[in-house]
Amino acid sequence: MADDRSLLDASRHDLNMLTVLDLTHDTTPSQCASAIMSAFPQCKVLHVRGLGRIDDMRPYFEEVFAIAGEMKALGEDARILDRGRQRTGELWLEVRYDPAIPDAYRHTANAQPLHTDGSYIAEFPNAGFLGCVSMSSDGGETVFLDGAVLVRILKQRRPDLLERIAHNSVPHKRSGDFRSLPIIRDAGAEPLLNWNYYCVDPDCSPEIERLREDLFEFLRDEALIADSLVDVKLAPGEAVIWKDDRVLHGRKTFQPTRESERFLWKACVEIDA
Predict the structure, then answer these.
(1) Distance, CA of 157 to CA of 89 (rounded, Å)
(2) Whole-prediction pTM value?
(3) Does residue 11 lie within any of the structural domains?
(4) What's the domain count of the chain?
(5) Could you say which of 150, 161, 252, 270 is the most buried, measured as most Cβ atoms within 10 Å of its Cβ?
(6) Distance between CA atoms of 3 and 34, rounded to whole angstroms?
(7) Which runs of E-coded beta strand occur in 150-207?
């Protein structure tokens, strides 16, 4: 057990994953963009607080990202039942509790497994964005796992699985997009990740299907994974930005009492930094 604890302590303290960026309600889009561009290179997850913007969040951040980089039109509509045709061409998509859409994680209260957003998109930008309109009081945290920590834990617990992950390209497919890469590329200090259990191409080989199931179970069941997650509980008006290919992210379950109790605006952004 001592070895487990030392591994976990090292994972938490020698990697700068999360940075909190405290701004104020009168921060201009230009000032916000400069702050994001300055902080982004040194962290993997950026929690933006203090702006106090809820109803006007989208136009504000559209100005921010016009300065800091470029938003990509990768919105999807989960109400379109054909997963191959859900791309809308919009900049924004809703992550909003809606019991009328029970088959899409972004609209349920279920815990969401760890994944990357760009798993099936060949030219995915370097950052994801979530901006909070409303948040459930009970749960609903966005959770992050540093890719470097994942590699450390795999080396400790399942070096055989790490070997398979690093040396097999896994095809992902959705919304008319297709991408095939190893789940972990370069298992060094800054590994790159590409993974979504639910977007792995259903026509993949039996070997890849076994790899898919093995990794899903490992991420779900390994205690060191659970202990290494970093929770970000967004309050209304706050946002979180993350490097999509450097961390896995997911969501904790929550207990809603009404539609839209947890409501986030999501976007995909290329940040110049």
Answers:
(1) 42
(2) 0.90
(3) yes
(4) 1
(5) 150
(6) 42
(7) 169-174, 177-182, 184-185, 192-193
